[in-house]
Amino acid sequence: MSTPMLLPQEVEILRKIPYTLSHRLESRLEEVVSFSGTHQNYCVGIVDMVGSTKAAAQLSKEKVTQYYSIFLNGMAMIAKDHGGLVVKSIGDSLLYYFPKTSDYDAKHFVCPLKCGISMIECSEIINLKMQKHGLPPVSYRISMDFGAVMLANSVSSPCDDIFGSTVNVCSKINRLAEPNGMVIGNDMYQIVKDFDEYRFKSTSDYSLGLLQQYPVYAVLKK
After folding, report:
1. What count of other Cβ atoms lies within 10 Å of the Cβ of residue 121?
2. Which stretches of the chain drop beneath a pLDDT of 70?
3. Vertex 83: Cα angle to 77 and 88 (nearest 5)
4. In 3-state terms, what secondary structure has residue 28?
5. Where are the chain's structural domains?
6. What is the pLDDT of residue 150?
7. How high is the pLDDT of residue 1?
8. d(C-alpha 21, C-alpha 48), whole Å
9. What value, to the nearest 5°, has the Cα angle with vertex 84 and ends 80 and 89?
10. Closest C-alpha to 181, from 140, 214, 144
11. In a 10 Å sphere around its CB, with 0-12 CB exposed, 13-18 middle and 19+ buried, how is residue 154 labelled?
């Protein structure tokens, strides 16, 4: 099949794009995402489905919608019930954070851990609902860490978005969790390591680059 020919005016528009973009970047950025300049320390969490792309490939469009909706809305409800603020869904994962943890008070880190454990314990309920709708079972990984994030507002969303290395690390260490398991980064571990209700097991470290290794811990309920 041959490549369709563009009209002369379409060719001219495409030719100008790099130059018009350069001018727009130099003169004034269009604020699709507006950064408030606010930095705050929060406990950040990500719950990510395991193998969802392969599972969804076997489903109709309607079933795919149900599949992701049951999971993401179920996880969002659990996060909110434990004081979490849901930021957004990213494909087959959910990003959220816990505003009360900004004060470093250890008691406010109980809810994030309970949230992760609740997500794991609710896997049977989630999968019973999947089965009821003729959908494949789902497993997922949970990761959390604590640290500085930047707040930003998107014109397409009423909720603040969060950015920064804490969010990035939380996303990267997620793969170190077992399916239907939870891991936390070292910065959060240092705050919660003496909690009696939980057991923490060292996992493979995450490389921060430049030979720096960042300890990661699996969280288990005693």
Report:
1. 12
2. 1-6, 10-38, 153-160, 208-211
3. 55
4. coil
5. 33-167
6. 87
7. 47
8. 35
9. 80
10. 140
11. middle
Could you give the 3-state DSSP secondary structure of residue 136?
Answer: coil
Question: CB-based burial of residue 64 (10 Å sphere; 0-12 exposed, 13-18 middle, 19+ buried)?
Answer: middle
- 151 SS3 class: strand
CATH of 33-167, one of 2.60.34.10, 3.30.110.10, 3.30.70.260, 3.30.70.1230: 3.30.70.1230
Angle between helix 61-81 and helix 110-121 axes, rounded to 10 deg: 150
Q: Token pair 């606010």 is at which residue?
A: 38
Q: Could you give the C-alpha distances from 13 to 5, 16, 17, 29, 178, in angstroms and in order? A: 14, 5, 6, 20, 50
Q: Which amino acid is at 127?
A: N
For 104, counting Cβ atoms within 10 Å of its Cβ (0-12 exposed, 13-18 middle, 19+ buried), the class is exposed
Q: Quick check: 92 and 49 in contact, CB under 8 A?
A: yes
Tens digit of each residue's pLDDT (9 = 90 or more) over 148-157:
998 876 555 5
Q: Which residues are bridge partners to 141 per DSSP?
A: 48, 181
Residue type, 207: S
110 burial via Cβ count (<10 Å: 0-12, 13-18, 19+): middle
Two structure tokens written together for 92: 């087959």
CA distance 93 to 31: 26
Model pTM? Answer: 0.80
Q: Quote the CA–CA distance of 149 and 171 in Å, as a whole number.
A: 13
